[in-house]
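Supplementary Text 2. Reproducibility record for the structural model of the 374-residue chain.

All settings were left at their defaults, and a single model was retained for analysis rather than an ensemble. We include the record here because the model underlies the residue-level annotations in Supplementary Table 4.
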Amino acid sequence: MNLSLEELGWNSTFQEHFDAVNDGTLVPARVIRENRGEYIVNTGERVGVARLPGIERLGKLDSAAYPTVGDWLALEEIAGGEDFLVRSFLPRASLFERKVVGESTRHQSIVANFDSLFLVTGLDEDFKTSRIQRYLSLAWNSRRELVIVLNKADLRDDLPEVLEAVEKVAGEVPVHAVSAHDRSSLECLFGYLGKGRTVALLGSSGVGKSSLVNAFLGEDRLPTQQNRAADGRGRHTTTWRELQMIPSGGVLIDLPGMRELQLTGEGDGVVKAFEDVEELMLRCKFRNCRHDGEPGCAIEAAIESGELDASRYQQYVKLNEEHAVAHARREARDKAIAARRRQIKVKEGVAKKGKMKRLGNANRSRKLIEGSEE
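Retained model, structure tokens:
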């Protein structure tokens, strides 16, 4: 399927970045899928496979140093095939990443260069506003438009109450209740799409992201599964990240469901997601108020009056502490990397001096030999 680069999301900014690295032999392409160290790319004219040169695979601590789905690459064509070598990947307009599960500091890039990020939640047995708060706290750092999508709205008889609860934690982020099985309910979401626009769908397993993509596509292209009957929790259906073109214009990226979403320690996502709590804290009588029995505490007064839900404040404390720990670990890792680089530089300097000294000694010895021969 031939597409223009503009249909894939190309714009003047990416063109400027590409021109800065292009020596006249490179072609631009977008990563449409990752596949075990290979990148399925679309150049607009064809789909091919791009690989990193071997040296580029060494010494990179975070996957943020590698391309991911949605990235724009500058590629060198390999003669006689559909393959390419990655020579550069262009600066990202947006990025969503998370901390690698089970790792203390490493991060994983999930998707890049999206215009809107749909935070999808299913309104079934596994629905929790605390999960929405966590996703918001991390997604704010992408610096792109966030949209909360409540799927499976047809399952709730108490939809107005649910919407009210979600809107309380959403702040200024728009909230839409839809059903993937009722395409007419998706009209409110089509406005985020259009030629050249990219929307990524993020959410836990079983919330119906693949069903939503199929509804936008108008066909059952992506596989779907029913949630587990025992606890209503979703099964992993999408196991890779892939870019899908929408017939009416625009790009959707369905992301695998995430059981565990840990904060990265970067940015001010927690502050943005809990602006109401942060503002209340400014009203406390004492600047160092611990919100635990101190006189004039605005947080305790707001909880007592019903202005602030106790559960929301508890979630704020939990996420803020997690963010602080992740931030400290990241700073410690960055310092360790910087120290290691300094050590390498010193060793390289010592080795260079030693080499120069050996060369000098060799030159002097050669001159002495030549003088004695004369």
